[in-house]
Amino acid sequence: MISCLRQYLILCKARVVLLMLLTTWAGMYLSTHESISLWLWINTTLGIAFMSGSAATINHIIDQHIDAIMERTKRRPLPTGNLSLYSASVFATLLGSSGFLILFFGVNILTAILTLLAAIGYSIVYSAYLKHATSQNIVIGGLSGAMPPLLGWVAVTGQIDPQAWLLVLIIFSWTPAHVWALSLHRLEDYKRAGVPMLPITHGVSFTKLNIIFYSLLTIACSLLPYAIGMSGKPYFVCALLLGMGLLGYALKLQLSRTYHRIALKTFHYSLIYLTGLFFAILLDHHLLLN
User: Fold this and answer.
1) Domain range for residue 243?
2) Same domain, yes or no, for 71 and 84?
């Protein structure tokens, strides 16, 4: 039973969903100076988590043949046969439908529709088309994964505000370098699978330069909340320190000849960076209220 549940959690990409929920909560709390009801918090969290898990499961379904080829993904539930395609499809349908209904009736209609569009953008537009169509797949498709702060914001306010898009912009600018670092580490995997990632289509050196560029862009975007008065000095200091680490890894990657190991470290640090950044902006907001 526990083993079966674990297989379904893998389908949901639970760790990725947790990071998305952190950015969702940031959007919720930054949208208001008032307290948020527990009922709204629970419904928003469950609705977005369920729909994100559904989109991740559909991604597994679409990519099952590629996953079977790649070393990193060949032990996932569908390539190994631990779960059937039918089971995964039913799971995705039930999870997605439940999440949509929770958001529609328990939060607001706009949040439900935006979350649905983001899920379709990732699971269908990116996974089924963009991933195989262009080396800029993650740049274009990254918008879907950057939406959770906006979804959290809209869940509380019922409207789309410019400040919410600023939070989206941070994740949107962060995503390419994060994914390209992994694609450098798993370059041979992507070659075997025939996925046109940037290092394959434009070379390793060009990819390294782009990682530096997007790291700088991410740092610049991360300072915008402070620039417009949305956050205070504690966040500003944390954003600078975390940004120095992000740029440091990008530069190490640029200067490294044997890049596979440092590429993986860059990938892992980018996760620490985004987690730390959104924790910082949440803590800073709490300090500003007190």
Assistant:
1) 161-290
2) yes
